[in-house]
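Hi R.,

As promised on Friday, here is the backbone we talked about, encoded as structure tokens. Could you run it through your design pipeline when you get a chance and send me back a sequence?
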């Protein structure tokens, strides 16, 4: 596989990423206030206050230029359907260019990459690659079999050619292999990720922990926490709470379109 040389797109961005990581760690939490949300249940008219549903903002993140070859449409997708990375949009002040993508943050040694995949006509393979920032080294190249069900899919390459280095930035790409004869028509999505130093274990509910991670800019870990809670809910009551937690975070992060989407699964390959 030909590696893409990404260096020409950004020559001075490591500095911005370093500054952004400093903001994530030093961001004051004292300004966070509690805003209960009123929730109605059935036809009883009874109302409870969910004090844990506090308002929050997505922590500052660096950005990188969108690499050429990006395609969301494809021959195996219905008209108007798109494959979309699950990442909050950048704030206006974070954008350097119209096509900038956020650099999402994880503390995981083996990150899980979350992508929304629309319904496919049948089970279809997807190729996932992970490269260093310069595009000169490939750290992972794995093929995942998508079920065809619409929803959020987590992809975790089980084997990396080298450990991810905290502070370094990496480029990932997923191509759904709709057609072997016309690969240039296959839908492709991509993004950037960086690794932060591991933090101390967080206290509180899953929602509280997820909000803390989001406010610190560690988006990938927050999504993994929420997705695992939905997948592993032991009963209907827990599943309801996990779904509400997911919806609240998606709405608050500017991803309301994915608030009601199911978690299809987390695949490792």
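Update: got your reply. Pasting your designed sequence below so it's all in one thread:
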């Amino acid at each position: 596989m030909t590696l893409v040389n990404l260096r020409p797109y950004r020559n001075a961005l490591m500095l911005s990423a370093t500054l952004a990581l400093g903001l994530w760690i030093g961001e004051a939490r004292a300004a966070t206030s509690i805003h209960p949300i009123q929730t109605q249940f059935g036809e009883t008219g009874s109302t409870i206050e969910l004090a844990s549903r506090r308002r929050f903002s997505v922590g500052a993140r660096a950005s990188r230029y969108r690499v050429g070859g990006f395609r969301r449409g494809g021959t195996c997708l219905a008209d108007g359907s798109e494959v979309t990375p699950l990442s909050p949009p950048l704030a206006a002040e974070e954008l350097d260019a119209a096509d900038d993508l956020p650099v999402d943050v994880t503390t995981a040694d083996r990150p899980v990459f979350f992508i929304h995949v629309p319904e496919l006509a049948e089970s279809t393979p997807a190729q996932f690659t992970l490269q260093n920032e310069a595009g000169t080294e490939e750290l992972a190249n794995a093929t995942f079999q998508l079920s065809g069900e619409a929803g959020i899919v987590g992809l975790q390459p089980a084997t990396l050619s080298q450990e991810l280095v905290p502070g370094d930035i990496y480029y990932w790409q997923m191509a759904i292999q709709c057609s072997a004869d016309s690969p240039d028509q296959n839908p492709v999505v991509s993004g950037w990720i960086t690794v932060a130093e591991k933090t101390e274990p967080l206290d509180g509910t899953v929602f509280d922990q997820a909000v803390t991670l989001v406010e610190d800019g560690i988006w990938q870990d927050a999504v993994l926490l929420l997705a695992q809670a939905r997948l592993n809910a032991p009963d209907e009551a827990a599943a309801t709470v996990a779904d509400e937690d997911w919806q609240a975070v998606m709405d608050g992060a500017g991803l309301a379109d994915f608030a009601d989407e199911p978690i299809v699964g987390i695949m490792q390959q």
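One thing I noticed while checking it: The helical segments are 13-26, 206-215, 219-231, 236-252.

Thanks again,
M.
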